[in-house]
Amino acid sequence: MIDFTYDGHIHTPFCPHGSTDALEAYVKAARTRGLKTITFTEHAPLPAGFVDPTPDQDSAMSLETLPEYLDQVARLKQAYADVLDIRVGLEIDYLPGFAEETIALLEPFANRLDETILSQHFLLDDGDYLPVDFSLETFDVLVKRLGSFEAVVRAYYESLEAGLRFEWERLNVRRIGHLDLPIKYEKQYDWEREHVKDIETRLLRTIQVRGFGLDLNTAGLRKVDCGKVYAEAVAVDAIALGIPFVLGSDAHVAMDVGRDFEDIQKKATFR
Questions:
Q1: At residue 80, what are phi and psi to the nearest 5 degrees?
Q2: Percent residues over pLDDT 70 in the chain
Q3: Global pTM?
């Protein structure tokens, strides 16, 4: 059962590639849309040995700003406790080859995190980390290197499946973010999901065994080459496996908090 009053994936002005909208603006938007619970999930700092491969090198907040982020959200939680359940979390990147370093980096802060999301924004290919969702141009580099859109999706699923063997519970990970992120650019390519169904099914079963949920991420609706909810295509199979969903707007600006939730509820697609 989907809770349409809960937005579990929201960014903040601490995001280097987001907006400067104040935290209070996100809260105001949540209240305007009738939400009862929100979780701030800012992009977690990346381990020291990892070099951000995006052209702008703006994928995550710095380690130095993490305490301030936690402090500010904690103050917000207290200030609005009577009207809104505000939770503090992170969106943590699974980086092949850096999982243990990531856990070690963030574990000292784990007792301050209500819940976190594990996502994947980069793929490792032949020693190079390549961004998945930075732009169509950088994504097309992945397609050309791996040979097809299906090959990128398969590599994405296989990488994430491998990453789930690590102890992400130590960082209070509750769910997997935008499971099928490569579809952000699917309108630019001819592909068939059936060609990756085997690995998709295997990944879902791994997620079930690990006890994680899924981020039903509405940001895909706002992407010109997508127009879909991320993880929508796996919803039926995931529900059959007992995998829970939490809606996430993936808002990087205040106006996107809870966006499209009401329309989705009216369609009753994910009940």
A1: -110, 15
A2: 99
A3: 0.96
